[in-house]
Amino acid sequence: MASTRNFKRSDSIAEGMPEALKQSRYQMKRCFARYAGKGKRVMKSNHLRDELEKVIEDRVERVRVLDGYLGSIIRFTQEAAVVPPYIAFAVRPNPGIWEYVKVNSEDLSVDAITSSEFLKFKETICDEKWASDENALELDFGAFDSSTPHMVLPQSMGNGVQFIAKFLSSQLRKDSESMKPLLDYLIALKHQGESLMVSESLDTTKKLQTALILAEVFVSALSKETPYHQFEPRFKEWGLEKGWGNTAEHVKETMHLLSEVLQAPDPSSMEKFFSRVPTIFNIVIFSPHGYFGQADVLGLPDTGGQVVYILDQVKALEEEMLLRIKEQGLAVKPQILVVTRLIPEARGTKCNQELEVILNTKCSHILRVPFKTENGDLHQWVSRFDVYPYLEQFAQDAAAKILDHLEGKPDLIIGNYTDGNLVASLMASKLGVTQGTIAHALEKTKYEDSDLKWKEFDQKYHFSCQFTADIIAMNTTDFIITSTFQEIAGSIDRPGQYESHGAYTLPGLYRVASGINVFDPKFNIASPGADQSVYFPYTLEQKRFTTFRPEIEELLYSKENNNEHIGFLEDRKKPIIFSMARLDIVKNITGLTEWYGKNKKLRKLVSLVIVGGFFDASKSKDREEMSEIKKMHSLIEKYHLQGQIRWIAAQTDRKRNSELYRFIADTKGAFVQPALYEAFGLTVIEAMNCGLPTFATNQGGPAEIIVDGVSGFHIDPNNGDEASNKIAEFFERCKQDNSYWNKISTGGLQRIEERYTWKIYANKLLNMGSIYSFWRQLNKEEKRAKKRYLQMFYNLQFRNLAKKVAVGGQETQQPDPKA
Ligand code: UDP
Ligand code: LCN
């Protein structure tokens, strides 16, 4: 029984709810008495609904209420805090839009409340003293945003660059004075002390416009290919510097775009013009934790997609930067520096090397800087949950090395994950450089009630540090890059990862009345791709890495167990379902093994191949991995999977992995990504790039990557039977209709070409870098005020929290988040 959405955005729940309650007053009084009857607690939507269903015995009446306005409120309630006689509701009728009300269960009166009041209700449930403390620390980052324009339409979220281009064009159009900031910005553009584009002599809009007209007439008379240096002296006479283009044609186009912007700005020419402004030559990318390397690191705890993403990102960015710089007519060698920690105990990886050239790039490096303790450099790997005490010193040490390596400041600093984003924030604030952040995965949404119950998690996960670092970085950064829309604002039923930082509370520590607004134009969706020179369709026979074939045959079909594989596949004719991930609990590889074990039909149709972890739990350093290894062994035994499952240890060679995906496609098999939650899911797009039909979790990014039934399939990781039946049905249908497999395979490839390529990504990211560099100048004052607030918060809160985390390389074990 799905309740329909009965309220529009303009409706106020506080206004509409009293009338709805009145219409079913008798039933509602019973229902609210029931809610309140069990005392203080947090209730989720399904609990509210279950109890309502129990109260209303009459079926017709029940359906009427559930399909009506009250049913909608219950459906869209994310949580309700019961503090008798009140029930406080946090209702989310649309992505990003929240309303808070409290209902008195005795007289059914309804009052609108603020997010802060709602959070106090929640706190009362676990810490009454804190909740009633008038001086409890409350943060309100929204207070600084009053003059920032915000989007209104949910569908605009994540299109920050376009929104800013629109806003700028309306602002700059106001009067002749309003162009001044743009003019000042262009005059200030420099590279290593040399002026670019506009010299100081063109200090009024009028003068610049005149120079542009003269120059445009002049270049129009030249042949398109005339190189810039041939007419550079003339340009200098007009007060124009290099940077407009490498040929007469490019120069003319860029000038024309600026002339249009100066005359009557419109969003399209604004965006195009900024994509040509030479602002970004040096980029620093932070990814401190892990093992960050180019070989032998994947599959290790904490080292997964983020590393793949960054290495591919660097290649795509470098290519795009080289192209842009060439077209700008500049002889500048760009530099990209990925900064990570140096791990002396590198266990066979290159993570103990300070500087490493990034393969297949011309001017990009990995720079490694050690974590320091009072006793010198930290030798061991530490879990990403334990890195907080080292970050401040790391930021300082890294800054010195970076300035040295680049011989100056970078133009853009990009952070990755909580630790990288915090370090990027510290350095960007200090140096006054434009900053972007990438979350990859915000941990807060992965663990239910991780805010309210932070004390229970803190010893092992240090969420107090992590959530504090996250909120600081989100508010410091100039722009945020996300892989999907859902990462920002979720779906109709589930809040986004960023959205869940809108208002939350860590009782005893601080309350966030306004953390981040998902309508902020700093949000931009730029989805990653997969390296298409590695992950290409199985049909491209001549490109395939055939040398791996004998190894892959051995990997999949040899009969003996060894360090690399256990289990065997009896029937070589069967298609294979394949999954590959780190053995984290959230990846749910054991879940997939169990679904397979239980589903006889599926076992008849296909074999199962798993890549992940390794086989001896006693050798693992990571508690989640240990427990998953043990569970895999016990499932293989419990369901007698010998002959039907091949379990292969973590693989580190992506070329060979890509051939493995394609080999599975040759068997007319499928890829399955069964995660309980997946922020994005690079394996999903790797498989799709190889033309392998993919079943992926509907919890998180994959739900957006795949169009169910067209470019792959969604599966519900919380409903294993349904998921395994869906996979079985696919293979049955393929048996009856041998074009069906091809149809889904092609659908996946089409989806990738439309949306998930690195070329599209690099273009978007450089446009962000350029436009936000200007935007931050325009909002200098507001930024300055917020920066002081953030510095105070960092100093008084984060530093103390970080001090409480053990230092010295004790490898903290991670608990089972389900426990
Ligand atoms: N991967 C790998 N070997 C393994 C497990 C994973 O090479 O044993 C790679 C996989 O191909 C993908 C990345 O690691 O490129 C995992 O990224 P994803 O986004 O799927 O998950 P994450 O590990 O980042 O959570
Ligand atoms: C981290 C994750 O958990 C994955 O979902 C992403 O694909 C990966 O980072 C790259 O962004």
Characterise the protein shown here.
The protein is α/β, with parallel strands linked by helices and about 800 residues long. It has 30 helices and 27 strands. The strands form six sheets. An eight-stranded mixed sheet has the order 11-12-10-9-15-16-17-20, with helices on both faces. The longest helix has 24 residues. The two termini are about 30 Å apart. 1,5-anhydro-D-arabino-hex-1-enitol binds next to helix 14.
- What number is the mean pLDDT? 94
- The N- and C-terminal alpha carbons lie at a distance of 32 Å
Proportion of residues in helical segments: 40-55%
> Which stretches are low in confidence, meaning pLDDT under 50 for 5 or more residues running?
810-819
Strand order across the largest sheet: 11-12-10-9-15-16-17-20
Number of extended strands: 27
Radius of gyration: 28 Å
- The structure class reads alpha/beta
Ions, cofactors and other ligands present here are:
uridine-5'-diphosphate, 1,5-anhydro-D-arabino-hex-1-enitol
Coarse shape: globular
Please report which band the strand proportion falls in: under 5%, 5-15%, 15-25%, 25-35%, 35-45% or over 45%. Answer: 5-15%
Major beta sheet summary:
8 strands, mixed
Determine the number of helices (DSSP H or I, runs of at least 4 residues): 30
SSE diagram, text form:
Layout: H1 13-23, H2 25-37, E1 41-43, H3 45-55, H4 59-67, H5 69-76, E2 77-83, E3 86-94, E4 97-104, E5 110-112, H6 115-126, H7 128-131, E6 138-140, H8 160-172, H9 180-188, E7 190-191, E8 194-195, H10 205-220, H11 232-237, H12 248-263, H13 267-276, E9 282-286, H14 305-328, E10 335-342, E11 355-357, E12 364-370, E13 372-373, E14 376-377, H15 391-406, E15 412-416, H16 417-431, E16 434-438, H17 454-461, H18 463-476, E17 479-482, H19 485-489, E18 504-506, E19 510-514, E20 523-525, H20 549-557, E21 565-566, E22 576-580, H21 589-598, H22 600-605, E23 607-611, H23 623-638, E24 645-648, H24 654-666, E25 670-673, H25 682-689, E26 694-697, H26 702-705, E27 713-715, H27 720-736, H28 740-755, H29 758-778, H30 780-803
Parallel strand pairs: 6-19, 9-10, 9-15, 10-12, 15-16, 16-17, 17-20, 22-23, 22-25, 23-24, 25-26, 26-27
Antiparallel strand pairs: 1-2, 2-3, 3-4, 4-5, 7-8, 11-12, 13-14, 18-19, 21-24
